[in-house]
Amino acid sequence: MIILYILIASIVSSILYRAGGMSKEQPYWIPVWMRHSWVRDWLCPMCFGIFFLPHTWFQFGMWLCFYGATGGMFSTYWDWMFGDVDNFWFSGFMVGLASLFLLWAIPWYWIVGRAVFLAVMWGGVNLLAHKYHWAHSDHIEEHTRGFTFG
Question: Which end of the chain is more exposed for a tag (fewer CB within 10 A), N or C?
C-alpha cells in the first residue's frame, strides 16, 4: 500500500513541479492559477513530507526545517554559483540533502542515496534533453524532476 501512496505522491509532485515552471501564456491543461513558482517551491515538498508527519514538538521543528530547506532548494538552480548556468546535477543533490532534517525518521544512507539519485536523474535528463534536442524537453525534464523528487 505504501508503494501506491508513493506513486500517487510522485505523480502529484510531477504535476506541481511542471505547473510552477510554466508561463501563463503557454497552452496546457494545467490551470493558469497554478502557474506560479511558489507552487513548485512549497507544494512539492508537501508531497514527500506528508509521509513524515511529526509526533513530537522536536519532530515538528525538524519537519519545518526540512520543509523550509526543501522549498529553498527548489527556488534556486545554483546558477549564481556556476556562472549563470543552471546546474541540475548540484540542484538535485542539494534538494536530496535537504532531507537531512528527517534523520529522526530516515537513515542517513537513504538520504545520501536519494540525493545522489536525484542528482543523476535531474542532471542526466537535462543533459540528454539538450544533447539529443528532445521536442518538448521542458515538459519531460520538469515532470521527471518532480516525479523523482516524490
Answer: N
C-alpha–C-alpha distance, residues 121 and 127, integer Å: 10
Domain count, the chain: 1
Q: Which domain holds residue 99?
A: 2-149
Q: What is the pTM of this model?
A: 0.88
Rounded Cα distance between 81 and 61, Å, is: 29
d(CA 148, CA 124): 12
pLDDT by residue (tens digit) across 27-85?
788 888 888 889 889 999 988 877 877 788 999 999 999 999 999 998 888 888 888 88
Selection from 111, 114, 88 nearest residue 101 by Cα:
111
Angle at 26 between CA 22 and CA 28, to 5 degrees: 85
Contact 13/20 with Cβ under 8 angstroms? no
Q: What is the mean pLDDT of the segment spanning 105-113?
A: 95
Q: Is 136 exposed, middle or buried (0-12, 13-18, 19+ CB in 10 A)?
A: exposed
